[in-house]
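Narrative summary of target 7.
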Amino acid sequence: MFRDLGLPRSLLIYGVCVPLALLLGFLLATPLDFSTMFFLALVVVALLMPILLKWHHFFLVASWNAAVIVFFLPGQPTLGTVMSMVSLLVYALNRTMRQKSTALDAKYIKLSLLFLLAVVLITAKATGGISGRALGSESWGGRRYISVLSAIAGFFALTSQSIPKDRRWLYASLFFLSGITAVISDLVYVAGPGFYFLYLVFPSQLASLQVLSQESVLRFSGFTWGSQVAIFYVLMRYGIRGTLDIAHPWRLVVFLSLVAFGTLGGFRSALITISVVTITLFILEGLLVTRYFPIALMAAALFGVFLVGFMDRLPLAVQRSLSFLPIDIDPIAKMDAVATLDWRFQMWRVMIPEIPRYFFLGKGYAFSASDFLLTQEAIKRGLYTSYEDTLIAGDYHNGPLTLIIPFGIWGVIGFVWFCWVSLRALHANYRFGDLSIQNVNRFLYAYFIARLFFYLVFYGQFDLDLSVFTGIVGLSIALNNGICRPGSAVPIAPAQSPERKSDEVALAPSGAP
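Modeled conformation, tokenized:
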């Protein structure tokens, strides 16, 4: 076109790049200004657009659990949150230019999430809207709304297209292993101020417990979350049977080492989650009537003997992680664990009578910044109990309460509907999915069951846990090209020559069936 007009291509390039460079130079004089960051974000997105158009789905899966933040956006959202929105937008643009949709069939799950989305938006509209601290508003809570919306958007983005067969193990591995980046936050603080610039990319909140617990129980929360996702990867790749395989003893050594590293955060919830996932997977693999059951009992007994014999020599954070077991631990670690449990019980006793008040119209996430800050000051002066600011922020440390208080009975109905149809979909993919990824399908089914049980019984926060649930079921549907039906399982072909082996079988790990 430009040749027809008699204009050289270089003229066009200079005509765009020179003014853009001048504008960037002017804006960089105030690099921390919101307009500068916003414009830089637009430039970066424009430059990356060709890559995003082709690889947006891959980047979405790889960043879902990554502990990485986009520092130049308001509120510093996680990379997974941003990619959920970007991937859904790219799919919408592609859909407008194509007559045929590439979205996978998951009608009932999508309907349940759309119902839940309507409940969230109506509640937000009726209780103060969606605003937040990052936008300069006096009303806070917008970040939690964004977390819920991005979890729902992420599911639609994950199921916008299927994962290529020769890359299914790669996608499933990156989905979990990207969470290892949580360890970097703790390592940065240990390395010292010279490395603090890395907190522009990795969330400093993960190192907050390390900062606050210097004089008591030193805790490394990043190590806990990083080790946890690595454990889940081992279980997904090899299963319980493959992990306990005596022909590969290093697998069990790696598994136990990761569990040990995971206790450095001092979180009881982490060990309970790993235990519930492991037990659920053990049952699904049908190992209760095999030789692996006495092996597991013997390993548990040896673990108990080790704890009893060396408990007093273990770090306080490790002892705190094990404080839910009937064993003697250091009084400092025990007091630290019991104190957090006591204020949670007190808070629940206050909030449970409030359920009828928010039964039909939830409280929402919006809350007054002034009330929150004044309450924190009153707590410091000893005028309020230690959990009053938590009540205002809506962080009740209880899964059902973080759902029914903000969104009422309608939110509960939407979530129960979503969980029911998701469990049916995961079970169908586990039973009737491709046998070459049976380990993945079995683990995703067990992981969803375990996380739902933990969310309902032990601990949960709806705005954070919803992304866990939508991510699990969304990945399963993308891996299996939808929801499998009876008779759709693809058996592994009999012995083939190495030259004719498919890429998928060659890429499957040794623990896969």
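The longest strand covers residues 139-140.
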